Amino acid sequence: MKPLARGPNNVRCVALAAIVMIACRIMAGAAQWGERWTRNMVSPATNLPAAFRPDSAEEVIWTAELGHETYGSPVIADGRVYIGTNNRRPRDPRRTGDRGVLMCFDAADGRLVWQLVVPKRTGDVYLDWPGAGLCSPPTVEGDRLWVLDNRGELLCLDVRGLANGNDGPVLDESALFTPEGETPIPLGELDADVIWRLDLKESPGIYTHDSGHASVLLADGIAYLNTCNGVDNTHRRIRHPDAATLIAVDARTGRLLAQDAERIGPRIVHCQWSSPALAEIGGRRRLILGGADAVVYVFDALARAPEAPPVPLRCRARLDLDPGTVKDHACEWNGRREAGGPSTIHGMPVWAEGAIFVTVGGDRWWGKREAWLVRIEVETDGDEVRLRERWRYALVRHCLSTPAVHDGLVFVPDSSGRLHAVDTETGAGVWVRELEGEVSGSPLVADNRVYVGTHRGVLYAWSADREGRRLGDTRLDSAIWGTPAAADGRLYVATMRRLYAVRRPASVNR
Fold it and tell me: I need a surface site. Which of 232, 337, 364, 418 has the fewest CB within 10 A?
């Protein structure tokens, strides 16, 4: 995944005062794991540990069992911690078997408050991969939560669960939580309260692949998200090429308001897993999408809900980051690892320092190994937007991560097990650090440290500066696939099987 800077600045031609005002407005949408709108993986949290002992009661505030496969990242909001996982260790003995699960914990003590348990899709396993669970991070605002589940359904939930009653319009959650052909089980105290549901398989008509991964971007009462339209089980065919890849939904009702008209579907390499970012560009809000076709798109955000939806999202600019390779029917190249194959964007684009930072390259599972970190300059003339590549930095291998931009440096790991620090102005490499194990999650910058976890279950902390000093590492119980989160002096780390809430001991001096 990827992010840019700390708060969408305006383009360089705008006066400094305007930049400051815009940055303040954007920061009002601070994310629960970094910066929600800019997608920059930077947290203001301080007083964090560089490492911790997993068996120390002084350092580990609490731990919580998850499933056996956890690809989601923890999200912290209003004293609660949310994370997606699977159902290999059921918390409700009435709901067993393979499921996608979103768990809600009390941040104070790790108590499970409620959980969303979603049945798997039946038939072709590639529609909803066995054991993958619920992979999307939720977005929380006020008393509502939005999340894309493993079935390709966008759900709005009550953050209090059923504790305050079953709010509508959805009142038949027992049917939603029950696999096809089975008798619905009455709702229990641990069950989630679904407010509304939008099935993306019906509108805009996507074809799900493996599992959904979308981070809902919420602004002005509108939810924007990538649809996760993808290939079929052959990995060489797009079943629904006309389905939209970016949509806007009324956050209160679940009504589809707008969708892109770029017809990216025929050019999808694997799946549209990159989520959009939001920036203030040329005096108005714009959406930045990293396309599954290796093209960066800039759309106008909606000023208001249209009266007769759905309407097309207006695309203002496009920049192809790998123009010399095949585009149409790109998925037909899947399985060919050689250079020259198509590229895609897995991580999120980041808006920082008045520019876009994004990673691009071959598909991690099916494509070429080449990958790059790219900085894109954004210029405006009235409503028009122009994109220009400023520099690109070659990574060692595939990259699934969203970069983190901090203090003139952009940090990004790649699949080779290396963490890169790159100068934001010149694109020159500042340092590279070897990690034990592959990285699929994103780095988190917090407390002047950059944290990153590996598939070997090691959490690293390096100084987030030009020295790149190794500050600590922690070996945990299983692989780390997601991104750490930080809030209120605590660091939250999820492995495949367990969630840790840790702090810096009072006895440790900074």
Answer: 337
Instruction: Using DSSP, state whether 175 is helix, strand or coil.
Output: helix
Cβ distance 501 to 510 under 8 Å?
Answer: no
- pLDDT tens across 401-454, in order? 999 999 999 999 999 999 999 999 999 999 999 999 999 999 999 999 999 999
Considering all CA atoms of the chain, what is the largest pairwise distance in Å, rounded to the nearest integer?
63
The label of the residue with tokens 């699934």 reads: 400
With left for phi above 0 and alpha for psi between -120 and 50, is residue 282 left, alpha or beta? Answer: left
How far apart, in Å, are the Cα atoms of 354 and each of 310, 371, 450? 31, 23, 22
Beta strands in 365-408 (DSSP E): 371-381, 384-394, 404-406
Report the half-sphere exposure of 151 (CA within 13 A, side-chain side). 24
Q: Which amino acid is at 35?
A: E
Let me know: does 465 contact 479? Beta carbons within 8 Å: no
Helix and strand counts by DSSP (H, E) for the chain: 2, 34
Please list the helix, strand and coil fractions of the chain in percent, rounded to the nearest 5, in that order: 5, 35, 55
Residue 64: name the closest of 47, 89, 33, 45 by CA.
89
Residue 90 identity (one-letter amino acid)? P
The full DSSP string for 349-368 is PEEETTEEEEEEES-TTTS-
Nearest to 164 by CA among 140, 192, 136: 192
- Strand pairing class (75-77; 60-65): unpaired
Q: What is the pTM of this model?
A: 0.93
Q: Strands of 238-354 (E only): list them.
A: 246-250, 256-260, 277-281, 284-290, 295-300, 311-313, 315-320, 350-352
Q: What are phi and psi of 224, to 5 degrees?
A: -110, 140
End-to-end CA distance of the chain: 30
- 470-475, strands of its sheet edge to edge: 42-43, 444-446, 449-453, 458-463, 470-475
pLDDT digits (tens, 9 = 90+) for 224-240: 999 999 999 999 999 99
Exposure on the CB side of residue 121, measured as CA atoms within 13 A: 22
pLDDT digits (tens, 9 = 90+) for 141-195: 999 999 999 999 999 999 999 999 999 899 999 999 999 999 999 999 999 999 9
Q: Are 71 and 455 within 8 A, CB to CB? A: no
Those residues with Cβ within 8 angstroms of residue 57's Cβ, 6 or more apart along the chain or in another chain = none
Given a contact cutoff of 8 angstroms between Cβ atoms, the answer to whether 221 and 164 are in contact is: no
Instruction: Read off the tokens for 323.
Output: 């123009």
Is residue 382 classed as helix, strand or coil in its secondary structure? coil
Q: What torsion, rounded to 10 degrees, do the Cα atoms 259, 216, 300, 326 define?
A: -70
